[in-house]
Amino acid sequence: MATSKRANPGGSGSQPLKDSDVRLDCLEDAQLAAKRLLDVVVSCIAIAVLAPVMAGLWVLIRIDSPGPALFRQKRVGKDGRLFVLYKFRTMTHGADEAIHRSAIRRFLRNERLSSDPGAPFKLNDDPRLTRMGPWIRRTSLDETPQFFNVLFGDMSLVGPRPAIPYELEHFEAWHHARHAVKPGITGIWQVYGRGRVSCDEMMRMDVEYARTWTILSDLKLIALTAPAVLRGNGAH
Fold first, then answer.
1. What are the residue boundaries of the Bacterial sugar transferase domain, all occurrences included (predicted)?
2. pTM beyond 0.70, yes or no
């Protein structure tokens, strides 16, 4: 029998691990290694394939409105660690953050943000958007720079939506379980929810993923992402 040690929650030292515990630990390590390998391989391929698209979008954004093409923002990663997330800019440079903060407060109270039946929990008609902003968001092209975040190890291909630090002020205790894993470009909420579901539903989806993910579930969600993007689910 293996005799690896695990900390005793009661604080009385350590106790031997059972063979079943060791097998579970090895399985978890294998899943994490496979997830990281998938992240690196797919993000490298995506960056290579999408490079011309990203270059063209970079130019169009610079022509469309003053300011940088790339938007950088601090987000909350695994275990609450902050990192810088990259997106293509869809709002006017230096846009007032108060509008989004107000929308987030309402969303976290499960209030509807729009009369659009296809995306009642998404802020539409945002005055901060550039002319190209709505189209870029509908196609999810603004998310493509996040493949670099995945490559750098701050994000995963699949995971919960990365929260903005000020959103944590309104989190309930159980919401933080979503930070047990890296945030992702896609995930359960991104495929099945987005602007169509309330905050409580989004949090349940994220926590469910953090507690139950497998490499097979990741592959399934990746396969479902392209059809969801093409349909524009909740991304109006």
1. 35-230
2. yes
